[in-house]
Amino acid sequence: MKKTLSLLGCVAGASLLLSQAALAQDCDTITLGSAISLTGKYATNGVHAKNGYEFAIQKIKDNGGVKVGDKCYNFEVIYYDDESKGDRGATLAERLIDQDKVQYMLGPYSSGMTKAIAPVTEKYQIPMVEAEGASRSLFNKGYKYLFAVLSTSEQYLASAVTLAAEKAQEAGKDTSSVKVAVAVENDPFSLDIRAGVLDDAAKYNMEIVIDEQLPRDLSDMSAILTKVKLLKPDLLIVSGHSKGAATAVRQIGEQKISTPMIAITHCEAADVTGNFGAAANDFLCSTQWAETLTYEDPIFGTAANYEKEFKAAYPEYAEKKVPYQTAQASAAVYVYKDSFERAGTLDKEAVRDAIAATDLQTFYGGIKFSEAGNNIAKPMVLRQIQNGEYNVVAPSAFASHPLNYPRTPQ
Hints:
- By secondary structure, the chain is α/β, with parallel strands linked by helices.
- It folds into two domains: 204 residues, Response regulator (Rossmann fold), CATH 3.40.50; 148 residues, 3-Layer(aba) Sandwich (Rossmann fold), CATH 3.40.50.2300.
- Helices cover 42% and strands 20% of the residues.
- It contains 13 helices and 17 strands.
- A seven-stranded mixed sheet has the order 8-7-9-10-11-16-17, with helices on both faces.
- The longest helix is centred in the N-terminal third of the chain and has 24 residues.
- The protein is globular.
C-alpha cells in the first residue's frame, strides 16, 4: 500500500511538473532589455552576468512562468554588446527604450557602465533592476527607477581591515601599528572600495603606507609591488575587476611578496585558482554570495542547489566556482518575477512601486531596497583560498573555516 501511494505521489508530482511546463510554453512574453559587456575589458563578467540572467529565465519558465493576474508570462531579454564602453552603453539603452520599446531593464556589468546607463533609464522612467553595479555613488543621486540586489562596494573589503586589527590585537599590538597598502583601478567601484578601506582603517588608526591606482590596462602592477616589498605592509588591498585580480595573483607570486594578509576582489570571476594554482592560496576574496550559505527560495532552492543546477546547465563552470556575478544576475530576474506578480499588472509604474516594496528571501540572500535603491538586507562575505578551495572566514557569524594567518607565499 505504501509503495502504491509513493508511486501515485511520484506520478502526481511528475504530472504537476509537466502541467507547469506545458503552461509555461503557452505563456505570453515580457521583454526585458540589457546593454551588457560581451567584449572589452569587462567581457568576462559580462558573460557571467548574461548566463545568470538566462539561467533564471529558464528556471522561472520551468516553474510555470510569471503569473500576472490571470495571465502567464515568460521573460525574454534583448541584449546588446556595450563593448565595455560607457558612451556606447548609454546609446544602446536609448535604443532599447526608443526603438525596441523595452519597458523594463536589467543592468549592465560594472558600476561604471551602470553609471552611464542609469541617467537614460531615469529620463524615460524605466525601471532597472541591476546586479553588477555596486558603487555607492549610484545611490546618492535620487534615482527612483534604479534598484540593485547587491551590497554596495564600500562594504567589499571592510572585513579584511577588521581581520587585520584582530590579528594585531591577538599578538598584543595596538591596531595603530598595522600598515595598509591600497592599489585600485580608477573606476567608481574600485574607488569606493578604496574609500571604504580608508574609512575603516582610520577607525583603527592604521597607517596607510601605499595608496595608488593600478595602471589603466590592469596588466602590470610591478612598480606598486616594488614599493610593497620596500614598505612591508601588514595588509595589501587590490581591486581591479577580473583582469586586475589575475594580474595581482600572478605578479605577487612572481615577485614572492610576503605580505601576511592580501585581500582582492573578483577571485572567482578571474578563476585565480584554475589559472595560478597554489600561488592563489591564502588570498582573501570578497564575495557577495557563497554556495555554502544557508539561503534558499522556492524557485532555485538552496544556494548549494543553485550552484549544482547552474553547473549542469553551463558545463563550462563544472571545474570552478560559480561566480557571485552569476548568482546575483539570477537574483535580479527573480526580483522582476516577484514584483510583476505582486503588482498584478504590466503597468511600469505599478511594477516600479512593487520593486521598491520588495522584501524577498532568495538563494542569494535577503533583498530589500532602501529609498535610495540599494539592497539593505544582505551582508558581504570574505572567503580565503585554502588548498585551492574557497572557504568563508568572515564575518564570524558566517565563517565555515578559521583564517590561515599569516599567509604562506608559494
